[in-house]
Amino acid sequence: MKIDRLLAIVLHLLNNEMTSARELAGKFGVSQRTIQRDIDSLCSAGIPVVSSLGARGGFGIMPGYSINRQMVDTDDLFFIITSLESIYSTFENGALADTIEKMRAIAGKTDKHKFEKKKEKLYIDFSSLHIGRKNSNNQGLIENAIDNCRVISFKYTSSRGKRTVRNVEPYTIVFKWYSWYLFGWCRLRNDYRLFRLSRIKDAADTGERFFRKEVDFEEHQNKYRERFGDIPLIKLKFIPEMKYIVEEYFRDSSQDILEDGSILMSVKIPEDYWLYGMILSYGDAVEVIEPVHIREIIKNIAGKIQEKY
After folding, report:
1. Which of 80, 132, 139, 210 has its CB surrounded by the most CB atoms within 10 Å?
2. pLDDT digits (tens, 9 = 90+) for 240-254
3. pTM (predicted TM-score)
4. Strand order in 254-257's β-sheet?
5. Is the dihedral of CA 21, 24, 29, 35 positive or negative?
């Protein structure tokens, strides 16, 4: 419907900088002429759409314009609140708790019944990913250090079990690979690093302030891939009986069914002891095909396990 497209265009322009008529036409599956008519309709309705010419020209919304509560319905608020509560179940944060309360207040009592009905149809629980009470103090200290650009020190255990003391300029808290991490500049390694929060112990504020460089986690990840290559591709061969488990846990990975019914799966996972443990957890139901060095590591670990029994 046209009204739905008009609202979608407004939301897109609010969340993006200048967008060309060609981009909008491609996004909404209509002609550029239709987009031009839609823009005219929005202007007639009082929406402050602005346009500019040139290579980077297009359409945008005048700064300072925002949508009101009437444009956000019960479904929108339900998904927003449910998502925020799911994050909060794994990462306790006072500001996040306040945000959830504000969103609940916006929803109002009139939507309470609808919320309860929707909860019967969708429930998200990330509690198994909780970093644990013993790390709650570290979490608060790290967040405060990020906000105030203060260097922190802590004891850290790597994925290979090596223990070191680090002084770090903290930048960002990241949720990646099913865990929470701290992204920052490590003075020991003289480079940016990711630190898993559950492996950080005895974090302390050194009292030293640092100048935050113009870099973010996503930018760093892209540069890292360009410099060192992407996460290695791992090929695993599962017995036929594991078909449904493989489809459930590796649904986004490339899978090929071999003549004997075995499943050859290709997946990109960071290499550390978690990966080795994951492979070993499948016992003799899986075989590492590539890369060769991981195959040898699993073979050696299996041999040491056999010696103990």
Report:
1. 139
2. 988 888 877 776 677
3. 0.58
4. 254-257, 263-268, 233-238, 286-290
5. negative
